[in-house]
Specification:
Shape: globular
Number of strands: 16
Strand content: 25-35%
Structural class: alpha+beta
CATH topology of the largest domain: Rossmann fold
Radius of gyration: 24 Å
């Protein structure tokens, strides 16, 4: 974004008159610090969401020049689709209009071409495309397409496999773990990490501890991979005797996530002549997609639901205020934040945001903040420090 926090507005002396309980000298320090501490991470984050990097180009035409022109046009169209895949739920993909060359020209803010190679009729290169966030938002909003921009904290996936009376996690014969490890890279808003299964992983958590939801051990394995929580995927294979087909039942449980712990059970039936390895690979891919799509659905920017909320934030000093601003600047659904009053002990802010109160609270929780309704007003506080959130979409297994 960055959000219209309005230290920009604080510099207007008429707006500055609303500040309370700060001496004139301290107010000057606060204003200067707020101005200089404008978080670059917010713009970097959004920059990454709307950027597609290292897209391979390979085109042949009647000449290298013609091949280059065709390749660049196709590359930008492909980059557009990759951004759509990243931020728009799959259920909405069919409704997204295909941009004309003129529209692409308007929404692409810049391209970079590297490693160009040509022959008489062939062109090869790697392309990076940066889209203009405001223009892309306007394009999707005009088409009434829902989309999400919030990047989730990384989660580690622990594939536990019940087979032949055993509970497997790090075992060399755990086909379920191998299926997850073999999934192609995913470029999305919710980073999902599949562990390596090395000696250190074995020492951190056992299959039984994972299966029993041992929170201390789950936190330890998540910390090892710099994840904020864990997804336990417990798969059990059985045979449907009536249909004579293999059936995979998966219990999917989340631990330590911002929206709380939860469990769901899913069932996958093999096609005739499908191998067990193919069934596991198919199930793993669908489960990963479901986790990512569920994240998008929970964080859709609902432009038709614009609300205001006045929030009081207790402060322990200027550093706490700057950190609060940094974290809020990472929340895509917050359109602007107007500072109403500021003292050394608390700030009062009016947030303008899209969506429901619950969605906003969930978005704050993703940034390790608690937003709750107090007896008099809404309040927000920074929770104990956790692993800093990723600032861009992550390609994951």
């Amino acid at each position: 974004m960055p959000k219209a926090w309005n230290p920009a507005n604080i510099l207007d002396l008429r707006r500055f008159a609303t500040l309370t309980s700060v001496s004139a000298q301290m107010a000057g320090v606060v204003i200067a610090a707020l101005f200089l501490a404008w978080s670059p991470q917010a713009s970097a984050r959004e920059f990454s969401i709307y950027t597609v990097s290292n897209l391979p180009l390979d085109e042949t035409a009647e000449s290298a020049a013609a091949a280059r022109e065709i390749a660049l046009a196709k590359g930008q169209a492909r980059a557009f689709q990759l951004v759509i895949d990243r931020i728009v739920p799959k259920t909405e993909h069919g409704r997204v209009p295909q941009p004309t060359p003129a529209v692409l020209l308007a929404i692409v803010s810049g391209i970079e071409v590297e490693d160009e190679k040509t022959s008489r009729v062939r062109y090869l290169a790697n392309l990076t495309v940066r889209f203009n966030r405001s223009a892309m938002r306007r394009f999707l909003r005009d088409a009434e397409i829902a989309f999400a921009e919030s990047i989730g904290n990384p989660l580690i996936v622990l594939p536990v496999y019940r087979a032949a009376g055993t509970v497997q996690l790090w075992d060399a014969g755990n086909l379920w773990l191998k299926a997850w490890q073999a999934l192609p890279s995913l470029d999305g808003l919710l980073p999902l990490i599949v562990p390596k299964g090395d000696g250190e992983d074995i020492a951190v958590v056992s299959p039984e501890q994972a299966l029993n939801g041992d929170e201390r051990r789950l936190r330890a394995i998540a910390k090892r991979y710099q994840a904020s929580g864990a997804v336990l995927a417990v798969a059990a294979l059985r045979r449907d005797e009536a249909a004579n087909l293999a059936v995979l039942e998966v219990s999917l449980s989340r631990f330590g996530t911002a929206d709380g712990d939860s469990t769901s059970v899913l069932r996958f039936t093999a096609d005739p002549n499908m191998t067990i390895e193919s069934l596991l690979a198919t199930a793993g891919g669908k489960l990963r997609d479901e986790l990512v799509e569920g994240w998008k659905q929970d964080h859709l920017i609902r432009f038709g639901e614009r609300r205001d909320m006045i929030v009081v934030a207790p402060l322990s000093g200027l550093a706490a205020w700057i950190e609060l601003r940094r974290r809020v600047s990472l929340i895509a659904s917050v359109e602007s934040a107007d500072l109403l009053s500021l003292s050394l002990k608390e700030a009062t802010v009016r947030f303008s945001y899209f969506g429901s109160d619950n969605q906003l609270a969930l978005a704050f929780a993703e940034q390790d903040m608690e937003l709750r309704q107090g007896s008099v007003s809404w309040q927000v506080r920074i929770l104990a420090h956790k692993q800093q959130k990723s600032t861009g979409p992550v390609s994951t297994q």
